[in-house]
Every structure is written in C-alpha cells, then in structure tokens.
Amino acid sequence: MSLVIDSEQIQAYKLRGSLPHAIESTWYITEAILNDVTNVPATTVSALALRSNYCTAFCRFVTGLLDSTQESYHKVSMYDKARVLQLPASFVELRHEAIHGELPSLVVLRQAIQKALDWLQTNYWTQVNDEDIWVDADQSCSVREYMSTRVDLRNIVQRYTNLHASVSPQREGDIDDESCLTVQAVLQLLEHPERGEQASADFVDVLLNHWLLYTSSDNNTAMMPDARCNGSENGQWTTAIYSCWDPILRLLAVKRPLLLRMLSAVMIKHLTTQYPLASSTESFQELMLAGLSRIYTAPDWRKLYRQSGLNGLEIVSRCLQSPNRWTVRLAALISDSPHHVRVKSMFAYRICQTMKSLDVGSAAGKSADDELC
How far is Cα of residue 248 from the mean position of the Cα atoms in its chain? Predict the structure, then answer.
C-alpha cells in the first residue's frame, strides 16, 4: 500500500480545525522527504536545512504521539509510553538527541524518517479504509483515480485564477472565451461515467479549498492582484474572487443544476461552522456570505437558483436554526430581496429579534434593519 497525501486538502482541513495526529505527522514527514528527493541539484537546499526539516517532522511525530497517551496525573516516562504503543525505543532516543544534543546526521535522519513512515502506515493507515478517508463509502472508485480527478480539477482552478490575475479585470459577469473553455474542461471531468455525483462534490471541495487557502494566505494580494476595490480587505477579496468566478459558476449552473445545489449546501455549512481558528477563516466566511447572497438575491442568478431547485424559505430557516453573525446576516439579505417576499412575510420579525440578540448589524445597512423590525 502506498500513501497518497493531498497536501492542499490537508492544509485546508487544518485551517478549519485540528487534524488527527497521524494524518498531520504523515503530511509533515512526506513533505520533508519530498524536499529531500526533489533537491536537484543538491545545492538547492543545504544539508543543514534538510536535517532541520527531518528533525522537526520526526520530533513532532514522536512528541505528539506520546503526549497524546499521557492520561495519568503522574508523569509516565516516554520509554514506557513508547513500549505501550509498540514504538521503537530508538525513536525516543533520537528525539532526545535532536532536541538536546547535536542534530543527527542526514543518513541517520533519512533512515529514521522512513521507519517513522513505515510505523504510521502499519499502525494507522492499514487500520482504516483509505477510500473512506477522502471518498464517500458508497463510491467504488479507487483512491488513485479519485486523486487524479482532484489534481486535474485543481489544475483547472489554479490555471483560470492565474490567468484572471494576469489580465486586465473584465466587467463583472462578463463571459469570455477562457471562461467557456474552463467550463468545458470542468464538465469533461464531471461527466466521468464512473464518478457520478462524487465528481461534482470533488469540484465544489477543490474550489472552496482553493478559496480558503487564498483568503487565509499572507500574500493573497500578490496571488490575485486585481483585488483593489475600495473598502475592507474582505470586501476586496469578495469583489476579486466573484469577478473571476461568477461567469464560470453561472455557466456550470446552467449545465449542471446539481452542482449549484451542492455548492450552496457546502457554503451554508461553512457559515454555520464555528472554526477554532476564527481569525484565519473570517475572510473565507465573509466570502461564503457574499456568494450565497449573490446566488439567492442577484437578478442574473434568479432563474438559475430556481432551476436548480433551491428555496429561499428553506435556506433562511436553516440559517435561523444555527444563528450566528454570518447566518443571520444572510437571512436578512435574502429577506430584504424583492425576489423573496414570502421570506420577509414569514421570517422578518424572527430575523430582527435574532439580530438584536446577537448584536449583529445587517450587511445591507441600518435602513434594512429598520425595515425588518
């Protein structure tokens, strides 16, 4: 069994919250190995840097694993805990040397890191069904095929984003030749006969992971330099990303109504989730709010969301079942839309009271608050 690590997906999941230690350790170890094997010529990364990378990955693996088994008020030695986990005593010794002594040699570290990866594969990865980790259990596709599809989708998303960042911004909503070609490439992957609905779910996951990583990046302005409208940083990102992706998503919604339903459901899930790293995901959740508001209230989306079977009453009801500063703002925006008169008549008072209890101002402004209340 060979381990296949989707680094970008793991980074996105880590931003949303904690990862199992075994998965995180496998990620760090494989990244350290890749930094070594791709170091051609050998002078690209110094031997000291490689040793430091290996030591960091190895020590985090051993320390995190042994600390997680510390359940007693009385300190238990690492050797005793390692014996319980069937972890070689040499791992504890090497960790101690790396932290308190000289950095071990590159030869020693390469051997140790491979043994650590073998231990993880034997004691964690072979104990789980690898298809169940990343793929719905009722899907029969192989992990290799699944990963290949995700890589292809990610390459399409990345290429379109880079192209959009390198040309002059087009008018919002314009559909150019590149948008049409991107849609064709995505549809070709979504129509794979053996992938079914999972292919659409993959695209939604890849796209939103892409947005999450960009909005949480320290250098996201360089990644998409046309994010330069007036207003807050979140507003800049919202304008830039939807200027880029709105034409694509509208074309895909015409061809694949199921995709829009999936996208809406996952975006709502992100709004209702309380992420531990709130500061890292705030821009992303602001983006989810703006996107859902656009889908449910913008005139050029009205026909599409109805054809896709989306329902404003249902989405507002779900928002109010999980009230927070994101969901209540979305409910207020939908209620204030002229396309959702029934929503306003049924939920206006409840939205107003929820906003007051959460001390949340309407994203549409004070006038909208007054009108709802």
Answer: 20
DSSP letter at 277 equals: S
The three-point CA angle 331-337-340 to 5° equals 80
Please tell me the pTM assigned to this model.
Answer: 0.62
Contact 371, 332 (CB under 8 A): no
pLDDT in tens, 330-354: 999 999 998 888 888 999 899 999 9
Burial tier of 113 (Cβ tally within 10 Å: 0-12, 13-18, 19+): buried
CA distances to 180, 298, 365 from 370, in Å: 43, 22, 9
Collapse the DSSP code of 102 into the 3-class scheme (helix H, G, I; strand E, B; otherwise coil) and give the result: coil
Contact 28, 19 (CB under 8 A): no
- What residue type is 300 in one-letter code? D
Tokens coding 272: 């209702």
pLDDT digits (tens, 9 = 90+) for 86-131: 899 999 999 999 999 889 998 999 999 999 988 988 888 777 654 4
Torsion-angle region of 196 (φ positive above 0: left; ψ -120 to 50: alpha; else: beta): left
Which residues neighbour 248 within 8 Å (Cβ) at sequence distance 6 or greater? 160, 179, 182, 183, 186
The CA–CA distances, whole Å, from 96 to 26, 48, 101, 108, 165 equal 20, 18, 7, 14, 48
DSSP letters of 166-206?
HSPPPPTT---HHHHHHHHHHHHHHT-TTTTHHHHHHHHHH
